[in-house]
Specification:
Helices cover 42% and strands 13% of the residues. The protein is α/β, with parallel strands linked by helices and 365 residues long. A 6-stranded parallel beta sheet has the order 9-8-7-10-11-12, sandwiched between helices. A 3-stranded parallel beta sheet has the order 2-1-3, with helices on one face. Strands 4-5-6 form a 3-stranded parallel beta sheet. α6 links the parallel β5 and β6. The mean pLDDT is 94.
Length: 365
């Protein structure tokens, strides 16, 4: 089978979950003698592409106007992809995001992956110029098959877009993160901390979370909150932190590689994921892989991933977050049990299983 994967996510995402998915798929496809895979990417600043063997692309020098930079990369990569589409020398096409630029040239079936429905469920967080929803609607109608990354996402597709159940296949994701016992990080980490990872905007529910955790921090001045990634704190976040009186107990960590991130997870007393919605929740698997106790919202796809290996709270209830985080922090026995359960739960997810799900879907079309 010949598979053509497009450039979209590698053009616009330097680092993140979706580009990690297709990097891992590409690696696995390369190792399969029955699969011929190609990604027509000429220029990209994506972090993960460096991991691919003999992958011919150029890292494009970043310029101050980053959006202009991305649009320039897109124009070049679109042309390169169009050339491959016109040659028509493949069996199935896999777009990595929702821009339908390829439809006018495509003569073969394509499989659309849907990662979440945040644009539809939280429209207030989306720019009026964002085209994701109309683009997604068009591709959902024309796709030969749709991959949803959780049962929750599949149900959202059926409820919101009326997609037929038979058109959707569920394929769970995995994580590439793992501990390296020989690796010594240069990061300055506190001796005792709660961990928050990634984006803090909107439905990620950071404001409610931090107000709940502030009470715990005020009760224990040896405890800190580490926020890893997600960019600098906004003016509004800094004001909230100041008003809560916890400025000296919050540390923001910027990491540059997966080995550092694994250490950040591993040394935390617990990882808390207070999101109000997730299409899957890869950070939960990351924490499992790094032997970190996990506390998460009991919403959307998260119980599918966490099952009985995590502690749950109501993300809309500040007191619920406080009580559950406090319980885990107060008991080493609970934390050890969560680590053991997380280790077992992590075995249910692998890139091999993900790849098999994608290939089964490709063969079916």
């Amino acid at each position: 089978m010949k598979i053509l994967i497009d450039h979209q996510i590698f053009t616009f995402q330097d680092y993140g979950g979706i580009s990690r998915i297709y990097t891992e798929l590409y690696k696995q496809f390369q190792e399969n003698p029955d699969i011929d895979v190609e990604m027509p990417i000429k220029f990209s600043n994506n972090f993960y592409l460096e991991e691919l063997k003999d992958f011919d692309y150029k890292n494009f020098m970043k310029i101050p106007h980053s959006m202009l930079n991305k649009l320039f990369l897109k124009a070049i990569n679109d042309l390169h992809t169009d050339k491959k589409l016109m040659q028509n020398n493949f069996d199935v096409f896999q777009p990595t995001y929702y821009n339908p630029y390829f439809l006018y040239l495509l003569k073969k079936p394509f499989v659309l992956s849907v990662y979440d429905m945040t644009h539809e469920i939280f429209p207030e967080t989306v720019s009026k110029y964002d085209r994701t929803i109309p683009w997604k609607r068009k591709l959902l109608a024309k796709a030969s098959k749709i991959i949803a990354i959780s049962e929750s996402t599949k149900n959202d597709l059926i409820d919101i877009y009326g997609i037929k159940d038979s058109k959707i296949e569920i394929v769970y994701l995995a994580t590439s993160l793992k501990l390296d016992s020989n690796y010594k990080t240069e990061l300055k980490l506190p001796s005792k901390y709660i961990l928050y990872v990634g984006n803090r905007k909107g439905y990620k529910n950071f404001d409610t979370f931090i107000q709940a955790v502030a009470k715990i921090l005020n009760e224990d001045d040896s405890l800190q909150l580490v926020c890893a990634g997600g960019g600098e704190f906004t003016n509004e976040e800094n004001k909230l932190i100041l008003d809560l009186g916890i400025g000296d107990q919050i540390k923001q960590i910027h990491f540059s590689n997966d080995k550092d991130l694994a250490v950040i997870y591993n040394q935390a007393k617990c990882f808390v994921f207070p999101s109000k919605y997730e299409g899957f929740g890869i950070p939960v698997l990351e924490a499992f892989a790094c032997e970190c106790p996990v506390i998460i919202s009991e919403v959307s796809s998260l119980p599918e991933v966490g099952e009985n290996a995590v502690k749950y709270f109501d993300p809309n209830d500040e007191n619920s977050i406080y009580e559950v985080v406090k319980e885990v922090l107060s008991s080493e026995e609970i934390r050890k049990k969560l680590v053991l359960k997380g280790r077992e739960r992590a075995k249910e997810f692998s890139w091999e299983k993900t790849v098999k799900g994608y290939l089964d879907c490709y063969f079916s079309v």
